[in-house]
């Protein structure tokens, strides 16, 4: 992606909220199937289903997690809010790659100095390392006055 390019977006894969909604329906069915007249089991299954449905709703309300244009980028914050960041406030873009619970997790880190935005492969629908490689050339050569950019920051996984 070149600085003169148009907007580029990374979004949640379409199937992800559908899987979450199916999981919510499955939890309700399990709760009703194994309730045996116990309202606590139904309530627990309902709470789990509601949490999954709420998580799916976020994916449906704010599917685009990262949008980039020549002037800056827009990231999702909170439940479904958006925050516009000019390139001048972005200090670094990197990939946090670490094992966790026996699995390898990668997150795209967008650091503004005042806030840190983390986006996973599931948020982006793409490999965070590849997204970082595409965004690195768009960073201005020097950060805003009074800030220092870690010039040794490598966008590839650690």
What does the model show?
It is a single chain. This protein is of the alpha+beta class and 158 residues long. The chain has two domains: 8-12 and 63-138; 15-61. It contains four helices and seven strands. The chain has helices at residues 15-33, 39-61, 121-124, 128-135; strands spanning 8-11, 64-69, 72-77, 81-86, 92-100, 103-111, 116-120. The protein has a four-stranded antiparallel beta sheet. A hairpin with a 4-residue loop joins β6 and β7. The chain is elongated. The two termini are 23 Å apart. The model has no long low-confidence stretch (mean pLDDT 88). It comes from Micromonospora pallida.
SSE map:
Elements: E1 8-11, H1 15-33, H2 39-61, E2 64-69, E3 72-77, E4 81-86, E5 92-100, E6 103-111, E7 116-120, H3 121-124, H4 128-135
Helix pairs in contact: 1-2
How many DSSP H or I helices?
4
Number of strands: 7
Look at the structure and give the mean pLDDT: 88
Distance between the termini: 23 Å
Strand order of the largest sheet: 1-2-3-4
InterPro entries: CFP-6_PH (IPR019692)
Organism: Micromonospora pallida
Protein name: PH domain-containing protein
Keywords: Membrane, Transmembrane, Transmembrane helix
In short:
The protein is of the alpha+beta class and 158 residues long.
Features:
transmembrane; 4-stranded antiparallel β-sheet; CFP-6_PH; 2 domains; membrane; alpha+beta; transmembrane helix; PH domain-containing protein; 3-stranded antiparallel β-sheet; 158 residues
